[in-house]
Amino acid sequence: MGRQFETMGDQFGSKGIGWQPGGMSLDVADHDEKFVVTADLPGFEKDDIDISLRGDRLRIVAESGAETEEGDEDYLRRERRQQSVSRTLTLPEAVDESSVSAEYRNGVLTVTLPKASGGDESHDIEVN
Known about the structure:
With about 130 residues, this protein is mainly beta. About 10% of the residues lie in helices and about 35% in strands.
């Protein structure tokens, strides 16, 4: 069955794009002076989300779940469970790590990554 989905992905040109098992759906926008990453994370709290930036790699991890309690045997049905999703993406150019910001509202995480300045600037070099 998995092979059929992979074949369909090849036919429609969607291989490697979009949702992945254990992943999350996200959009990456390239604005003039910044990248904006928007990720759907419904059912999580702000404290469940960890974001890290190492060089040009942005990693988003979200973990939540119902805590196991002493009285678990009292449940007739238990469908809510621990959930963990993560996604790592490579940014196409350097960002100003000290100016990165993130906001989580109504199940949507928005990470704003200002592009690093100075990449295209020229510098005069004195010859000794």
